[in-house]
Specification:
About 60% of the residues lie in helices and about 0% in strands. The protein is mainly α. The two termini are about 25 Å apart. Pfam families: EF-hand_5, EF-hand_7.
C-alpha cells in the first residue's frame, strides 16, 4: 500500500479510535491487509464471516460458533457481511483495551440475537443450551435449562417485563462483574489479548511506545 494512502487512513481511524497509538493503528491496518490478501484499496474490501471466525478461534481461543457469529455482527456495524478496516480497528480497540463500559455494551450487543435491543427468554434459553454440555436426555436438559433461564431473569430482569434490557444488564453486571459474560464467552481472555498485541505490534520500535 502506498505510504501516503496508509498515513491518510491511519489519521482517519485515529480520529475515532483513541485507545491505540497511530503506530499501532498502522500495524493493525497492515495485518488487516494481509488477512484480506490484497495489495489494492483495502477500504474497498473486508474480512468475511468465515475468516473472522477462524481468527476468533485460532488467535483469541473462542469456540462457541453461535457467539462467534454474533461477535462478527457486533464488529460489522454497517451490516454488509464484511468487516472493513475501520470496523476491524474499532472492534479490536474494545477487545484489547476497551473500558468496562465499552465491554458492557459490546457483550449486550452480542447477546441480543435478533437485534431488537432486548435479551429475550428464548435467546437466553438458546445461548445457555448452546454453551452447556448436555449429558442427560434432551427433555431433562431442556427442563434444567429453563430453570436456569428463570433464575437468570429473577436476578437480572429488574423491571419484571420478561426480558433483559440494557439497563437491566448494566445494573446486574455492575453489581456482580462475573455476569458480564453470563451467557457465554464473547471477549478474549487477557493472556490471548497480550499474545495478540505482541504479535501485531512486534515491529514497532520501543521508542515509539
Amino acid at each position: 500500500m502506498d505510504q501516503r494512502v496508509l498515513n491518510k487512513l491511519v489519521e482517519s481511524v485515529s480520529n475515532t479510535v483513541k485507545s491505540f497509538k497511530k503506530c499501532e493503528i498502522e500495524c493493525l491496518i497492515r495485518l488487516f491487509q494481509n488477512l484480506v490478501k490484497t495489495d489494492g484499496r483495502i477500504d474497498k474490501t473486508g474480512i468475511d464471516r468465515n475468516t473472522f471466525q477462524e481468527i476468533l478461534h485460532n488467535i483469541f481461543g473462542m469456540t462457541d460458533d453461535m457467539l462467534m457469529n454474533r461477535v462478527f455482527c457486533a464488529f460489522d456495524k454497517d451490516n454488509d457481511n464484511h468487516i472493513n478496516v475501520k470496523e476491524w480497528v474499532k472492534g479490536l480497540s474494545v477487545f484489547l483495551r476497551g473500558t468496562f463500559e465499552e465491554k458492557l455494551k459490546f457483550c449486550f450487543e452480542v447477546y441480543y440475537l435478533n437485534g431488537d435491543g432486548y435479551i429475550s427468554q428464548e435467546e437466553i434459553f438458546n445461548m445457555l443450551k448452546n454453551s452447556l454440555y448436555q449429558q442427560s436426555s434432551e427433555e431433562e436438559s431442556d427442563e434444567a435449562i429453563q430453570e436456569l433461564v428463570d433464575l437468570t431473569l429473577k436476578k437480572m430482569d429488574y423491571d419484571n417485563d420478561g426480558k433483559i434490557s440494557f439497563a437491566d444488564f448494566e445494573k446486574a453486571v455492575k453489581e456482580e462483574r462475573l455476569l458480564l459474560e453470563v451467557f457465554g464467552q464473547c471477549l478474549p481472555e487477557a493472556k490471548k489479548c497480550l499474545d495478540f498485541e505482541v504479535l501485531a505490534f512486534r515491529h514497532i520500535p520501543i521508542s515509539r511506545f
